[in-house]
Amino acid sequence: MRKLKTSRQPEILDAALAIADERGLDALSMRAVAERVGVTPMALYGYFRNKGELLDALVGRLLAGLTPSEAAGTWQERLSEIAQATRRLAREHRAVFPLLLFRASVTPDGVRVVDLIYQALLDAGVPEADVPRIERLVSTFVLGFAISEVNGRFSSASDETRTRRGAELPAHRRLAGQLAVDDWDAEFAADLADLMRIIRPV
């Protein structure tokens, strides 16, 4: 077994992410990560005191990829880019993505993404006292949509179930032709547009 150098933290997180992607979060342990990296489990404790700290760092590793490009100038463009990146992240790391719902953003990378959303909301003219609440509203929608999509809640099968189970109910009968969704990308974009109007009404 080899010793870890200070620069090996990204390697540890990459290994943890790979294990969770391949075998699910339940398979993620300090021992499993140590085996993947090729060190003793004790060597990891110089980086993370426990699995909780490892999971927090993994959340930061995921959120680091959500930073908007410099080309995204307006507050709407920045929020939209973060939202779309979050949706892609859910598709790429569906086993790990639920961590973003279960654990707070406490690492520098995680806090930076939240700060970028705060700044976009401030630029939109949201009163300072309302910014944290609106950030939670936006984040909860985006995370909820993304996790619903990758776990099958949004699918043609769910459309059929919804239509079938409510066939005898008046509102379901009235909306029978509207319940199926043909384009989830379009729905997500429309939902974001609705949120933008809530944030700063036209």
From TrEMBL:
Residues 29-48 bind DNA. Keywords: DNA-binding, Transcription, Transcription regulation. It comes from the Bacteria. The keyword Phosphoprotein does not apply. Pfam families: TetR_C_1, TetR_N. Residues 6-66 form the HTH tetR-type domain. The keyword Transcription applies. This is TetR/AcrR family transcriptional regulator C-terminal domain-containing protein.
